[in-house]
Amino acid sequence: QYVLYGDQIIKRDQASIDMEDRGYNFGDGIYEVVYIYGGKPFSMEEHFKRFAESAAKLEMKLPYTLETIIDLTVKLIDANKIHNGIVYIQMTRGASPRNHLFDRESSCLITGFARKMDPPVQAQENGVKTYLTEDIRWLRCDIKSLNLLGNTMAKRKAADHGCHEALQHREGTCTEGSSSNLFIIKNGTLYTHPATNLILNGITRQHILTIANEENVDVTEQAFTTDDLLEADEVFISSTTMEIAPVIAVTGDKKGTYPIGPITRFLQKKLKEKIN
Ligand code: PDD
């Protein structure tokens, strides 16, 4: 297995991370996950545009141009001969004597790996159960940062209740999943939380909004409550790794069940067409 380390593709067992890498000590870094379909990364440009935006928000300097980072990512995919799978690229603020104060001029370290993974067809076909819980994360969820404890704790809680994903809410306003965006459909209108500091503006989310506009599905980027969630006609989640997965049940802070509806199926189909 090969990994990306700086601008080199090396064997995984030859890579080493410093004890005082800021990513390791502080979670001081960012990442992206890109899906590879039939050897081709999907929406790579969009992912790396967001990568650059996350870096800018944290005042991290990219060590190479975006084009170089994309080239290196393609090399990483090829070296690992990935047909279907994911490529994970992260950037930390690099190694320096541990100190909360960061230096804007730090040389950042980019690393990455790629892994075979089949699309989760089971979840896409049959839907997933979800666990509704309080959103305990920080106020910059728009940054795709390595700090994911709020997310991982929510996911653990969901799994402990036999659910595939956690849905999070801030005092009754639904935000997003622990690693996905959340949509509901009510009376033919698609709702999702606006792309504010409270959610990650998913690349899949953006594709869905574009498709909805192209296909004349009524759509509004408007926050909705946990009661709206319960009363929704259809619910689904989206992410790079899931694409669109219908939500068939919510448990936790509120409880409800949903059929897999026609608009969810339609958007799933249109997204697949975009991918292929
Ligand atoms: N997670 N919201 C959160 C909190 C996420 O972590 C993700 C993706 C999304 C969906 O974004 P996108 O459509 O760009 O994948 C929304 C990735 C897949 C992960 O951490 O593995």
TrEMBL record:
Reactions that this protein is recorded to catalyse: D-alanine + 2-oxoglutarate = D-glutamate + pyruvate
Gene Ontology molecular functions: D-alanine-2-oxoglutarate aminotransferase activity; pyridoxal phosphate binding
Enzyme class: transferase
GO BP annotations listed: amino acid biosynthetic process; carboxylic acid biosynthetic process; D-amino acid metabolic process
GO cellular component: cytosol
Recorded superkingdom: Bacteria
Complex formation: Homodimer.
Function, in words: Acts on the D-isomers of alanine, leucine, aspartate, glutamate, aminobutyrate, norvaline and asparagine. The enzyme transfers an amino group from a substrate D-amino acid to the pyridoxal phosphate cofactor to form pyridoxamine and an alpha-keto acid in the first half-reaction.
PANTHER family reported for this sequence: AMINO-ACID AMINOTRANSFERASE, D-ALANINE AMINOTRANSFERASE
UniProt-recorded name of the protein: D-alanine aminotransferase
Species in which this protein is naturally found: Fictibacillus marinisediminis
